[in-house]
Design goal:
Elements lengths: L10 E2 L1 H12 L11 H11 L2 E2 L9 H10 L5 H9 L2 E5 L3 E5 L3 H7 L7 H12 L1 H14 L2 E2 L19 H11 L3 E7 L2 E6 H7 L12 H16 L7 H5 L7 H10 L2 E6 L6 E4 L3 H8 L8 E3 L10 H8 L20 E6 L2 E11 L4 E9 L7 H18 L3 E8 L3 H8 L1
Parallel strand pairs: 1-8, 13-14
Antiparallel strand pairs: 2-4, 3-4, 5-7, 6-7, 8-9, 10-11, 11-12, 12-13
Organism: Tahibacter aquaticus
Protein name: Winged helix-turn-helix domain-containing protein
Pfam family, one: AlkZ-like
């Protein structure tokens, strides 16, 4: 949309901004069509990034994040998309899947992302273990793709490694961080590493091509993409999405505004402007006219883009969310792997859940509703449906409920289930 056609003086209430955010993330309404491999890749492209985490008390985070947007789908589609070269793995927000179309843009931004903790660590290991990593790179070049499991663990003192990894795993991860190796596929979720040039050669049909932009324009592209993924955002939330470093300044936004790639809006209660991507102009106008309606209810991953920025989740949804799986048990308020409940445009509560796959049981250890959320029949029906759909997708059709806050919700929910 040309700059001349962008809305002027657009004003949004906070609920309207929330709906625009959900629409941009693909969480405003239930999926209209059955999941397909192409829609899975499109969902990743819409979010720009799909964060990876290995905890699988319920489902591993990337699978659950896609389920929240696609509904039921075969989990192996994600690995197939990776093996086919439709998506690739990279360090961005954290470890993420991203569309292969963006691989050259990510590579071009790598020098500017060296402040990321993982990139710093990778560079340190590559420098301090130059001979070993050179030898490992030569091994992959000569013999082909490898897994960490292909190397025997040497006996030695415990610890001393990144997450307790053996030396070869740390070296493989360092070479991945520097971009010399890529992940060609995953076997049982274990990374298989190969030379970058070989992975990209197999994925050539899905690449857009080399990026002919200077460092400043590349960063502007990431800023614009962050704003697009967020729907509407003040400047202070932009940098976190792709981990761009320090907070984005008005001077950095000015060229995007001048070119008409983004435009400013007023949001009720915000003391600074909000920004919307030009491709969401029509959506923003619908939001301002009260034409967006939230109808989707689902369980979210703890690492879903909707909640991974604690400040943003609090400001937009009044939802104070901290991931507690890395918190000592005695200090946890809600539980180890707590799933936020999205219910028709609001974050209405959270569930401490565990999937017992061998027994076919989906255990909800505890349900917590947010302060002020009334457990009426609509909420209970939506929550029951969200739990049932997630449990069935897991292949754990027996739902077992534990305690609830407020008391009595679990007993009423059992009847709905």
């Amino acid at each position: 949309m040309p700059a001349a056609e962008l809305p002027a003086d657009l004003r949004l209430t906070l609920p309207q901004a929330r709906l625009l955010h959900l629409a941009a993330q693909g969480l405003l309404a239930p999926p209209r069509a059955k999941a397909t491999p192409a829609r899975l890749v499109a969902a990743i492209a819409r979010m720009q990034l799909l964060q990876i985490d290995t905890i699988h008390v319920v489902a591993r985070s990337p699978y659950l994040t896609l389920f929240s947007r696609l509904g039921s789908y075969p989990a192996e589609w994600l690995e197939k998309a990776l093996a086919q070269g439709r998506i690739f793995e990279t360090w961005a927000h954290e470890a993420c899947f991203a569309p292969m179309a963006d691989v050259d843009l990510h590579a071009a931004f790598r020098p500017a992302r060296l402040q990321h903790w993982a990139m710093r660590h990778a560079q340190r290991v590559r420098t301090s273990h130059r001979r070993e990593t050179d030898d490992l790179l030569a091994h992959v070049a000569e013999r082909g793709a490898v897994r960490s499991a292909d190397f025997a663990r040497q006996e030695g003192p415990p610890g001393g490694g990144w997450w307790g990894w053996k030396a070869e795993k740390r070296w493989l991860e360092a070479l991945f961080g520097t971009g010399e190796l890529m992940v060609s596929r995953r076997d049982n979720f274990q990374r298989v590493y190969d030379l970058r040039e070989r992975v990209l050669a197999r994925a050539q049909r899905y690449r857009v091509g080399q990026v002919a932009l200077d460092a400043e324009r590349i960063k502007q592209e990431w800023v614009a993409r962050s704003i697009k993924a967020l729907g509407v955002t003040p400047a202070r939330w932009v940098a976190d999405y792709f981990r761009l470093g320090r907070q984005i300044t008005p001077a950095e936004l000015a060229p995007l505004l001048a070119r008409g790639e983004i435009f400013a809006v007023s949001v009720e209660g915000w003391d600074k402007p909000g920004y919307v991507h030009a491709e969401h102009a029509a959506l923003a106008q619908r939001a301002a006219r009260g034409r967006l309606r939230a109808t989707h209810s689902t369980l979210l991953s703890p690492f879903d883009p909707l909640v991974w920025d604690r400040d943003r989740a609090s400001a937009l949804f009044g939802f104070d969310y901290r991931i507690e799986c890395y918190t000592p048990e005695a200090k946890r308020r809600y539980g180890y792997f707590v799933l936020p409940l999205l219910q028709r445009g609001r974050l209405a509560g959270r569930l401490d859940a565990k999937a017992h796959r061998k027994e076919g049981v989906f255990e909800v250890k505890a349900i917590f509703l947010e302060d002020g959320v009334v457990p009426d029949e609509t909420l209970l029906a939506d929550l029951a449906q969200a739990i049932r759909q997630c449990a069935d997708w897991h292949g754990t059709p027996t739902v077992r409920l534990g305690r609830s806050e407020p008391k009595g919700v679990a007993a009423r929910l059992k009847k709905c289930l």
